[in-house]
Design a protein that fits this description.
alpha/beta; TIM Barrel; 8 strands; 34% helix
């Protein structure tokens, strides 16, 4: 079973509570929140106060993707702010296992995010401590990018890696996903589908979420 996780990076922040209600009405069950610090990635986005406000506005699962340096300093704080899921980049955390355990100890689901050019072997030792893997299918930092097609093969290899180890780790994927490619992505093993422009781009987020769900369930 898969879930749609609209990325609020592409939402209208002047109407954020309305946008959240709209995607929930469409069938979204997870809300993806991109946190950028201007160092790990070029952009600067939102932080703890916005997550606290979102928590008050919705009962959806809040999934925070920390695209920041030294994520271990802030990961638990995002759980305390109301995030249910917190992912940190394998490229940014030199004490990844410790950070993942601290997220779990705080009551959150721990995730490892991995960039397109980072090999899957970098996940091997930390994989048992992760509740989910966030596979980036674009280079992080900006919305509206095109899907990197080699991500399908990487997704399938990640699915095998997890299954061969008998782990319950879920796979999330983020970047360039729309109604034209979501079917293949779900079929290849992704369980949480992040979509930003495809949901909020045309100003009709409720219909857009339903369209993604319909497109992904054709093969099921």
């Amino acid at each position: 079973m898969f879930e749609i996780a609209p990325s609020i990076l592409s939402a209208d922040f002047a109407r954020l509570a309305e946008e959240i209600r709209a995607v929930e009405e469409g069938g979204a069950t997870v809300l993806h929140v991109d946190v950028m610090d201007g160092q790990f990635v070029p952009n600067i986005t939102i932080g703890l106060p916005v997550v606290e406000s979102i928590r008050k506005a919705t009962s959806l699962t809040i999934d925070t993707h920390l695209m920041i340096e030294e994520p271990s300093r802030y990961a638990v704080k995002f759980v305390e702010a109301g995030a249910n899921m917190v992912s940190v980049h394998v490229e940014a955390d030199v004490h990844l296992q410790r950070t993942l355990c601290s997220i779990r100890d705080a009551g959150g689901q721990s995730g490892i995010a991995i960039n397109p050019a980072t090999p899957l072997v970098s996940l091997e030792e930390a994989l048992p401590f992760a509740d989910f893997i966030l596979l980036m299918s674009v280079n992080p930092g900006f919305g509206g990018q095109k899907f990197i097609h080699t991500s399908i093969d990487k997704l399938r290899r990640l699915r095998r890696m997890i299954d061969e180890r008998g782990l319950p780790t879920r796979i999330e994927i983020d970047g360039g996903i729309d109604a034209g490619n979501i079917q293949k992505i779900v079929e290849s093993g992704a369980e949480i589908i992040v979509a930003g422009s495809a949901v909020f781009g045309d100003g009709k987020p409720t219909e857009a979420v339903r369209k993604l769900i319909d497109a992904a369930t054709v093969w099921v």
